[in-house]
Structure prediction request, 167 residues.
Amino acid sequence: MMNTTAENLVKEKVDYIYQRLRKQITSIDSEACPQSFIFFVFGASGDLAKKKIYPTLWWLYRDGFLPEHICFVGYARSQLTIERIFQNADKYMKVQDCELDLYKKFLELNHYVCGSYDKPADFEHLNHEANRISQLASAHRFFYLALPPSVYGSVSELISTHCRPEA
Prediction:
């Protein structure tokens, strides 16, 4: 009996937090001027991306915790496609049969750009693709670096120089 009461209390608290977060997300989406967001995943072809980052982005999307106007851009050196990246990540996504339509919509929001981590021209191309994909050069941008620490410096510099949103 005590266990059930504790479990119910935890469930109530989780539901309350979920509803508060949903209310905040909804208020962001309903602003007079809709905002656009781009989430970049650097190292998109790696193990961390396929096992943790992409599944977590899917779960956040599925549960409604991401803004309505968002897209995802994977970036890595590997000559891959976004379809191949998700084939590799498929077993970690934990998609239920009843979620397949929503998952398809999530996949359509994902894109991939191949390039090096030290060439300005590749980052200029990434910026061009991001602007094309989001159709808004001023979209808010988030950068997740799933990369070796040895390239953080050059990647951060190139992001700052070539991939910042326009004012």
User: Anything to note?
Assistant: The radius of gyration is 18 Å. The longest helix spans residues 2-29.
